Amino acid sequence: MRLTRRRFLVAGAGAISAAACDGAPRSELELDVRRWLGKPTAPPLPPSLTAPAGTTLDPVSHALNRFTFGPRPGDYARVAALGVSAFLEQQLAPQRLDDRLCERVIRHECESLADPESSLWPRRGEAGDPLQQLFPALKDRGGRVGELYEYKEKVLLDELTRATVLRAVLSERQLFEVMVQFWTDHFNIDPSKAECKWLKVADDRDVIRAHALGNFRDLLRASAVSPAMLWYLDGRVNRRMRAGDKPNENYARELLELHTLGVHGGYTQQDVIEVARCLTGWTVRDRKRTFKGRVEFNPRQHDDGPKRVLGNLIPAGLGAADLDRVLAILVAHPGTARHLAWKLCRRFIADEPPEAAVRATAAAFTAAQGDIPATLRALFATPEFSAPAVRGRKFKRPFHFVVSALRATNAETDAQRPLTEFLVRLGHAPFRYATPDGYPEEATHWQSTLLWRWNFAAALAANRIRGTRIEPDDLVRRAGGETTLGALVLGRQPTPDEAAAGGASGAGLALLLASPAFQYS
Amino acid sequence: MPAQALITGQPEARRTLVVVFLRGAADGLALVPPVADDHYYRARPRLGISAREAIRLDDRFGLHPQLRPLEPAWRDGDLAIVHACGIEDDTRSHFEAQDLMEHGGLVAGGWLGRFLRTRPAAGSGALTCVALGKALPECLLGAPAVTVMENFDAFAIGGEVPAFRSQLERLYAMERGQLGTAARDTFDALVRIEAMRTTVYRPEHDARYGRDDFATGLSQIARLIKAGVGLEAASIDLPGWDSHFAQQGQVETLAARLAAGLEAFRRDLGARMATTTVVVMTEFGRTVEENTSFGTDHGRGAAMLVLGGGVRGGRLHGAWRGLSPDVLERRGVLDGYGDLPVLNNYRNVLAPVLARHGADDPALQSVFPGFALTPLPLFG
């Protein structure tokens, strides 16, 4: 028999797998070989797994439920040993967490996202780069954004979607990924609109991921001049060429209603008009021009008269600086603190967030001048967050459900179509929400998705999703039995009914993942 | 809302919209030839459908002979046609034109997805919207929940383990509140789907579906409608219309498939057609003038069909100005012949259809933002 190259590699990979002893971290070489073969990877499991002993969710399980997209089999013991507050501090400083496995996978799988200048990648020498001195346009985001147009738009959306799933599943920076999703909804952009097809990739990189655990002020500023946002909410055509031209209010309205103050945040229609006037002249070069995707301020299209925004006078003649004036007013406004605090508490505590927690979180946001980690620290410190009554009562949105199931089973996945198709059926595929309000958060929107949750649970447990693989026997063996595995998946000991149903179903793991309890975090 | 309506809707009040997209730019001047217009035969000396071959519709138009199965619907007043339809943009790229038409302009998401978001029950069931095929069509982007399926096997639950479902029912029976209700409704819908999966379908009223994908897809849509699972919208494609070369046989085959599929669907549904509407659309039409290789190239205006209950059918709606050279839209500097101009924006065909399916004026504005609608009076 002729030994083909592929067979040779398979044989080699087998040998390396066999060589890796039980429980020891896989070598980088083995991971590389597996990637060459198109095999996804999952982090190694500890030789034995310790499960929560309680019959209700303890603070460790609660923290894992809310700070992450669901615990992996080894997480409970690790966080219990570390302590919840130390775990939170680790998660609030994501750049210090070793995330090589995830980064390698993304680099390997998603070429279009591999931006050497992104904050989560090693930076190329910036200052003094002679090429950039000669061509300053290369230095600004326009140059980096322009490269995206070299990809077919379907490739970009596909890689961005897969990367979002892979990072949620694999990254050690879990709270960062949770916040990336939070801000992606908060500053929602649907890539199906015009050139957002290309530009959402830059928005994900330069706006959402660059600032997800940074300062809200910087996040808002980056979003305001994000080329994708300028397309999505028509900021690029908000201009005043001659007296009598009406500004395009689309972005200004959503900036007030969704991004900052909230719909009852105390602004008027006149404020919308005035904000729109302040932002006239900001535009983005379309793909028919050189430096496509570059954001520019065009003074001749700017309304340079005086404006009044939320009671603050913005004098005439400031030009491009109007933008920063407006954003400073909005970030400092108590309505913004309250609106963001309410949304964060809704995400992390309950669909109807307790008023005391909202107030404490808003106060922290104001005191920390928009620092996101400080705000979250205050939120997680409220007694409302830890109250036993809210634990395990937050209905997972479909993305959270799917990712938490993959994590709980230590699944290897390539996040290709057979997997992401489930997210489409569940109505929660990343970057598929048309309107600027982002995917809804509350349980009522998602409770009708049970059929496909059950189907997903059954398909995953039986290894019927192409490109996604779990090893149930290995999990049971390491856990030391089905009941312990059940406790690892649910974050508490299974109830007698759950245990009995699992046994009687003949598909214990599928039943656990499909059970009512696993639909909640 | 009663529990049952949450997941399945109220079947008796539910209307179903079926969108058929003819991908590749179907030749409206072959499907609905202007048989009384000399300019037509001058531009298409070899490909023109003669008045003798065509099925006579009125003084100006005929129907392609292969569309004969649609003649009864036309005679019964259930089929309306709008000619010279299309988008306002003059792109002649299939991809770009399909995107513009399916999104409803330079907007995010698809028009059908946005419409479904305005529907109170659309997000509530596993089966309110079904896309037949392998991938989600652009018009359904942003829909609250879509099932993309090639067949009913997609609905198998729990794989090969029968006890999985009964034990699941046992756990969810203990759930109170909305989740428990949603679970019970889901189990109920599953029973109906399984009945469909496990039985051979017998169409009613002697309807005969062909074996092609289009007919098979339509028969599955008909089954879902009859099962009362709350289907609000379905989409299905009939591809292959890009007839640059020797188009006669190509158009004949596809026209026959289109007409046979729709005829079987209409016959099968019978009285249920009263609450069903089928819209047939394509991204743009083809050149008025035939090319030297017996084909036609990318043009502008095309024909749309609207079939169903309440349609003011048996007539052509919208503007038509004939094919005289002064009417045609210039294609380029050197081209002698122009294209059939778009006289009827596709949104003005879709808007009255969506109104029939429950969209009020604010809803229509949100479905087609930034466009001043003047809906055609397709329903009476």
Folded structure, characterized:
- The complex is a heterodimer of chains A (about 525) and B (about 375).
- Chain A is mainly α and about 525 residues long.
- Among the domains of chain A are: about 335-385; about 400-520, no CATH class.
- Chain A is about 55% helix and about 5% strand.
- Chain A is built from 28 helices and six strands.
- The longest helix of chain A has 18 residues, at about 155-170.
- Chain A is globular, with a radius of gyration of 24 Å.
- The N and C termini of chain A lie far apart (about 55 Å).
- By secondary structure, chain B is α/β, with parallel strands linked by helices.
- Chain B has a single domain (about 5-155, about 210-320, about 340-365), classed as Alkaline Phosphatase, subunit A (3-Layer(aba) Sandwich).
- In chain B, about 35% of the residues lie in helices and about 15% in strands.
- Chain B contains twelve helices and eleven strands.
- Chain B has helices at about 5-10, 30, 40-45, 70-75, 95-105, 110-115, 160-175, 175-200, 215-225, 245-270, 345-355, 360-365, and strands at about 15-20, 55, 60-65, 80-85, 130, 145-150, 235, 275-280, 300-310, 315, 345.
- In chain B, strands 1, 4, 5, 6, 7, 8, 9, 10 and 11 form a nine-stranded mixed β-sheet that branches. In chain B, strands 2-3 form a two-stranded antiparallel ribbon.
- The longest helix of chain B has 23 residues, at about 245-270.
- Chain B is globular.
- Chain B starts with a helix and ends in a 13-residue tail after the last helix.
- Mean pLDDT of chain B is about 90; it is low at about 1-10.
- Chains A and B meet through helix 23, helix 24, helix 27 and helix 28 of A and helix 6, helix 7 and helix 8 of B.
